[in-house]
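Hey, can you fold this one?
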Amino acid sequence: MMNIIVASSPSGGIGNQGKIPWKCPEDMAHFHAMTRGAVVVMGRTTWGSIGSKPLEDRINIIISSSQPTPDLGGGSGQLGPMWFKSPEDAYNTLNILSKSKLIYIIGGESIYNFFLERGLVGKIYQSIIVNAGAQFDRHFKTPAGQFDLISSEDRGSYILNILQFKNAEEEQFTNLIRRIQSNGELTMDRTGVGCRTLFGNNCLSFSLRHDKFPLATHRSIPFRHVFEELMFFLRGQTDVNILRDAGVNIWNGNTSRAALDKVGLTDVPEYTMINGYGEHWRRFGSGTGKYSDQIVALINNISDVKSGRDYSAARRLILLSWNPDKLDRCALPGCHFAYQFNYSRESDELSCFLFQRSSDVPLALMWNIATAALLTRLLNIMTNTKPGLLHVVVSNAHIYQNHAAEMEALLRSPTTTFPILRYTRDAPPAKIEDFAFVDFEVLFYRPSKTNIKLAMNV
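Sure. Predicted structure:
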């Protein structure tokens, strides 16, 4: 997790003509005490304002498109500064360093804004300088609604405010759980376990911009498992042993011998996802011998709309996981049963709207959100579009009765910033099913270590 440390006027001014327009030795002492032994990240102007020399006992990272001169090393055993042409170029280094050291973004305005806009800042330590003056050409502004003030201390010449990031997007998930608990109806279901159900008006929205990836932070979700499951679908595969061999066991229960027999599929081999997502996505048909590869059609239609060749599919960029003709021969009818995509020529963004007919909210919803986000990202890469927004609507949102005892721990579990998902190759693969796990990096993922155990009800 990265933090910001900033000194500003009461109105948010932080600099004027490349200089700090005040002297406050007490705040400077606070700055040095906070950052000593840590990593400090700054732009070229901030580097110049501290004398173009590394801050001692710190790892200095400077973001600048211009090349450093050869004599910028630290000397005297001090680790010299590390230069990067852009913040994105520094991602891998910052991700590694963040596992063992505190990271402080120390300015200037554009560097602050870059990390704030991408939701990568965990805490802000803001010194409000009492007698700061009034002339500023650089400012610091906290994004509205993204941080809570957790402490404020008057230190005489300055006031120290500490602000904590709140993951408002993930709070949509926990707020949905609270609504189900408060307003849900006790119902019976196919499993016989019973659940509390809330029907309708359950919509969540997430930004995928700037490579942000909505992977749950209230507990850990393994990205590799999400990736392997999605690729299983995209390859049109049905043999769940492929997932089992990859260490992904989420479909074991619903394709076990007992589960298949329970729904009358006694002739279907164990661990077979008959008429599941993969078959519908790649071989959608009514059994008449004519099939549709929805994935190929979707990629082609998005490309046609983007290029302006054909707009007839602009409002028909739809992927279905629900075929009424085959519900009687289905291991488990699709829960995330329809996706609709939208391409914006104005922003060059591809966005997704996921329709879920049913969601075991505590266990599966954030997983399904990650799946939809990853599918959108793969389509972005295949069609050379930018990530936009992800909207998720759940019509039947429920909490199983045997999960109720874990809800208090889940709701208490802290959330952090969503990670960044980076594609490491220069070009897309020939086919969407050819993506490999090594093609992606998940950076800055620091989920809570809260241990929440939720049984899969079959």
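The mean pLDDT is 94. Let me know if you want another pass with a different chain boundary.
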